[in-house]
Amino acid sequence: MDIIGRGFLARQLAEVAHRHPHAVVLAAGVSQVGLTDPVAFAREARLVRETARTCRETGRTLVFLSTASAAMYGAPGCTGREDCPHPTTAYGHHKRALEEVVRTAGCAFLILRLSHLVGPGQAPHQLVPALVRQVESGSVRIFRGVRRDLVDVRDFVQVLDHLLALGVTGEMINLASGFAVPVADVVTHLAALLGCEPRREIVNLGGDHQVSVQKLRSLLRWGTSADYRATLDRYAPLYSSRATASGARPH
To answer: Which pLDDT score, from 0 to 100, does residue 137 have?
Structure first.
């Protein structure tokens, strides 16, 4: 596969790239759920249109990585199914619009709505690196009742590898574990793992959401691991200031 991008997901996909010469994966673009920058949105939109046109002309499959975050499924009463998105932020509306660009571009496509992936080399603004930094600082802000679905990035690579090997196209699929864990529980586990006991500031401004994995499991007969503690154990220490100093690696 051709991988467009050089970040966290692009690096992880390199190990299976040789298996799928027919695919082009867009692993670049806006990744900050709170972003509202129209310039960044426009830049990604141009990249998506250009890549879709190239895939149409060359007969290749475009894999577009969208979001299954609260930005897409955070509206009250949303079931988290692929056929009923309810974007709640500028980022969510932006990704939803790009999905439609891909879907109507005339090329073969596969759209994956990704939950909160966890792995090595993530950007500081992403969930686990940000929480580790807060835990070690001694103060964590937690939105009451909010849950997040955590997925080991290795599961993401394996799922995409299998979907492409099966020739799945023309689908929009949530890639998540199906188990949303309270962020308060994530913080508790991180605190024990890192040997810290931060002060918790509870805020009543959060929005909960869930992600359905029914379609994913119907296509593969299996999905991703729901063992969020093992995922945190594997990767969270990489973002500790102490681990950074000692050059820790995932186990």
So the answer is: 96
Q: Which domain holds residue 149?
A: 2-246
pTM for this model (two decimals): 0.92
Instruction: Specify whether the backbone of 109 is left (phi greater than 0), alpha (psi in -120 to 50) or beta.
Output: beta
Enter the tokens of residue 188. 């508790």
- 159-192 pLDDT per residue, tens: 999 999 999 999 999 999 999 999 999 999 999 9
Contacts by residues 122-131 (CB-CB < 8 Å, ≥ 24 positions apart): 122/8, 122/239, 123/7, 123/8, 123/31, 125/31, 125/32, 126/8, 126/31, 128/232, 128/235, 128/236, 128/239, 129/239, 131/183, 131/186, 131/187, 131/190
The CATH number for 135's domain is: 3.40.50.720
Structural domains of the chain, count: 1
In this prediction, residue 243 carries a pLDDT of 57
